[in-house]
Amino acid sequence: MTTYPTTGLSGPALTATVSVKPLVLNAPQRGEDLHVRVTAPTTGTSLPVVLFAHGFGSNLDGYAPLVDHWASGGFIVIQATHLDSRRLDLPADDPRRPHMWRHRVQDMRRILDELPTLEAAVPGLSGRMDRSRVVAAGHSFGGQTAGILVGLRVTDPQTGAAEDLSDARVMASIQLATAGKGGDELTPFAHDNLPWLRDQDFSHITAPGLVVAGDKDDLPLSTRGPAWTTDPYTLSRSTNSLLTVRGGEHFLGGISGYRAAETTDENPDRVALVQQVTLAYLRHITGIDHTDWNNAQTVLTGDHPLGHLESK
To answer: Is the model's pTM score more than 0.70?
Structure first.
């Protein structure tokens, strides 16, 4: 076990990792093949899986500070490039644009269907993946994607229906700096440009989860300020936890990439906090070890300068 002096948290000994990209999955109904990246530790067996959904406009190369840390801590992390990525640069009138939120969920389900294919495609990984332990994670728009896989209901702005698109193969979620409920709390910009946020129902989420929110994440999407991003915690019926990152803006100190240009609150200590708490949660929820999670719950109470952790 390693103890980190900056945060006071503990973590496992980290191992070397290997990353393979792009692994291409045929997806004819999507209009584009699905490009996937797999990052995994070079040692270990019965490795759980994290499906990670990027934020709006990003791609499978993003979020290395989290992906590398999780993989070095014993997880196979799988990322896709979703249709909203700037790499694909869909035209403004592309008919897929209104359905991007749904395409994201379909991407994740396709990956779940193809886990044996992906496992076989990574040298040295065959026989080491535990497909019975899968956690969905995501940042921003990707947090909604992860939430839908565990029961979040989104009212389709075109049909008016709020379908259950959850997947029983996903046991838990991590939602980072993601959207809250819609309704009259949305700004006019969000209502007009992000219609999939107009009506979100968190009450059907019963799988456990960790929500990470920055207390300075004042997005131009809601009139409620940073508290809006805590809705996935406060409004779900599941046994879940909330990490509040003190001083954290939307990228929580820089989780979207090393030297990422969009980070407005660059802070290595905040990134380390998110890395360590999320890995501790992954190890806890998948049954690997509870020590680091229990330690985090003890350390991150009261007035810790970096963050606060609570559970319900």
So the answer is: yes
